[in-house]
């Protein structure tokens, strides 16, 4: 992950991949035991909240090509 976008004790620290150049990327926020995912083009919008186990399963699925056909 790349640059921290924002963060406080009550808000996640948002990270964007260093390779994100067009602005249409996912940002990942860490807050306690949760991982949040949001669109970089809608930073004030909603996000998806995952447990760290769910996040890990998602990342493993991406690496294994489980979403290549979507």
Topology:
Blueprint: E1 13-16, E2 26-31, E3 34-39, E4 48-51, H1 52-63
Antiparallel strand pairs: 1-2, 2-3, 3-4
- The level of helicity is 10-25%
Q: What is the molecular shape?
A: globular
SSE string: EEEEH
Distance between the termini: 23 Å
Number of domains: 1
Low-pLDDT residue intervals, each spanning 5 or more residues: 1-7
Structure, explained:
- This protein is α+β, with helices and mostly antiparallel strands.
- The chain has one domain (13-63).
- The protein is 17% helix and 29% strand.
- The chain has one helix and four strands, in the order ββββα.
- The protein has one helix at residues 52-63, and strands at 13-16, 26-31, 34-39, 48-51.
- Strands 1-2-3-4 form a four-stranded antiparallel sheet.
- The longest helix is centred in the C-terminal third of the chain and has 12 residues, at 52-63.
- The radius of gyration is 12 Å and the shape is globular.
Main attributes of the structure:
single chain; 70 residues; alpha+beta; four-stranded antiparallel β-sheet; 4 strands; disordered N terminus
């Amino acid at each position: 992950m790349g640059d921290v976008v924002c963060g406080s004790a009550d808000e996640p620290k948002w990270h964007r991949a260093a390779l994100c150049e067009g602005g249409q990327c996912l940002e990942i926020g860490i807050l306690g035991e949760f991982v949040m995912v949001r669109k970089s083009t809608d930073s004030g919008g909603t996000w998806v909240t995952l447990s760290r186990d769910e996040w890990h399963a998602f990342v493993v699925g991406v690496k294994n090509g489980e979403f290549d056909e979507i």
